[in-house]
Amino acid sequence: MKNFLRNNSLSLSFFVLFLASLGAQTIFGFKEHNKELIEDGANAITFLSYLTSGHFIQSTFENWESEFLQMALFVVMTIFLQQKGSSESKDFDKDEEVDREPSANKKDAPWPVKKGGWILAIYKHSLTIILFLLFLVSFIFHFYGSLKDENEKLSLKGLPLESALNYIGDSRFWFESFQNWQSEFLSVFAIVILSIYFRQIGSSQSKPVDAPNMETGE
């Protein structure tokens, strides 16, 4: 157990932070949604009902959507684009380990590498594929939750409900998306640029403290 915790401490720590944050979001979102319902003259809902409400689904997945989009684009763009001096960029002036073709003879190589063929062809791009799939799933759930929340509000007001076809072009849905996308793109821009001039000793996301500013990569 001690070795497991040591070997997986980074992922476990962030997963615990994720669960704690999701729990807090759910509790406060439940209170906020009920407050809005009461203000609109409706009855408060139960906690279990809130978990299937449009308010909860929309607020959760619109954030996941932007995170997976940011990571997918960052993985893809760092293949072809460079930022001189950044620890988050490849150095195109020298050979990079990540660019070499995989060898089935390498000790402990993953099974798709040893299998070869189309399985290896997919595996070589599997990180990008899974991130874009997670983005797509999150996007669909965000759209579903946002549409459901919108129709719940319209129903309370006695107004006609929105169809999925009409809502895909609605300003509310795209406002929810872009307000998250822009923050994710800003955070990537910040780490790419700031890692040129600033350091954090001991972090894999930083260059060595004594590395020149224009030295590219870790």
Can you walk through the features of this model?
Keywords: Membrane, Transmembrane, Transmembrane helix. It holds the Pfam family DUF6766. InterPro entries: DUF6766 (IPR046657). With 218 residues, the protein is an all-alpha fold. It folds into two domains: 1-51; 54-218, no CATH class. It is 66% helix and 0% strand. The longest helix is centred in the middle third of the chain and has 32 residues, at 126-157. 15% of the residues are buried. The model has no long low-confidence stretch (mean pLDDT 92).
Main beta-sheet annotation? none
- Helix and strand composition category: mainly alpha
Q: Which geometry do the CA atoms define?
A: elongated
Give the topology string: H per helix, E per strand. HHHHHHHHH
Mean pLDDT: 92
Count of individual helical segments: 9
How large is the radius of gyration? 22 Å
Residue share in helix: 55-70%
- Sequence stretches where pLDDT stays below 50 over 5 or more residues: none
Percentage of β-strand residues: under 5%
What distance lies between the first and last C-alpha atoms, to the nearest angstrom? 31 Å
**How many distinct folded domains?**
2
Beta-strand segment tally: 0
Pfam families: DUF6766
Keywords: Membrane, Transmembrane, Transmembrane helix
Transmembrane segments: 122-144
Write the layout of secondary structure elements.
Layout: H1 2-7, H2 9-39, H3 47-50, H4 54-80, H5 111-115, H6 117-123, H7 126-157, H8 164-167, H9 171-197
Question: Which labels suit this protein?
Answer:
transmembrane; 218 residues; single chain; DUF6766; membrane; mainly alpha; transmembrane helix; elongated
